[in-house]
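Sequence only, no structure available. Ideas?
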Amino acid sequence: MSQPAFPTRLAAAVERYRAEVAGPREHLSLLRWQMAERHALDSRDCFPGHVTTSAYVLSPDHARILLIDHVVIGRWLQPGGHWEEAESFHASAAREALEETGVQGLRLHPWHEGTDLPFVIDSHDVPGKPARGEPAHVHHDLQYLFLADPAAPLVAQIEEVHAAAWKPLAELAEIAPLGLARIKSLTPQG
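Reply:
I predicted one. Tokens follow.
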């Protein structure tokens, strides 16, 4: 059986997120407008915005999070990147985490119950790249929770990442306050 088309998968993920997870002020207006207008949100050349995926990789006790020092953005962030074809949005986020950090033993957090329901959908402004003719735009970032062993070695992808490191969970306060609040509301498994 073939995979449903990207727009169908995205619509299902966004609708379910809005029904089951989103707070009262998470309207996702631009994303939903672009979906209604049938924009090619799976293309990084789609403006005013397009889909990205990222990973909140937690230690099993939820005390630490895996972050990257992003070369272009110049700050610590969760691993992630532009959508590339994958069997699911969480598989795309996992691939980005593996590519950027070399993290091993990555597993989807039980919160997801094995589904593709995003933990957070964060639409945020990003600067353009004039050298590529790319204007400032929006990343509609579908964010997923993962668990991994912080004792396993990491290998940063030097083209995009200065470093990859496990940091205290509180480091998310400046980076992703909504993600941090939701993570804090979880009870660690086991």
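The chain has one domain: 6-184.
Hope that gets you unstuck.
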